[in-house]
Specification:
Shape: elongated
Distance between the termini: 46 Å
Helix content: over 70%
Strand content: under 5%
Number of helices: 5
Radius of gyration: 14 Å
Number of strands: 0
Keywords: Membrane, Transmembrane, Transmembrane helix
Structural class: mainly alpha
Order of helices and strands: HHHHH
Number of domains: 1
Protein name: DUF421 domain-containing protein
Length: 88
Amino acid sequence: MNITDTLWGTGEHLDALQMGVRSFVTFFVSLALLRLGGMRIFGKKSAQDMIITILFGAVLARGVVGASPYWPTVVAAAVMVLGNRVLA
């Protein structure tokens, strides 16, 4: 087993270290995505903004706990943030 599998893990059976590493990475990924999205996501508190905020957290959480593959969940979150920026 290599270091990537030990720290990152695969599938749904992750230990505390793997979930911690994924959470650490997700924190910085989400900061970058929110910077791309701008303050509009939290600024006006419209219904659309609240939906995007809740979905953003839910989608990224699936990647942290291993319920879905990590990088596709990051892409899905990015599409939501950029879509919100374009539509808003």
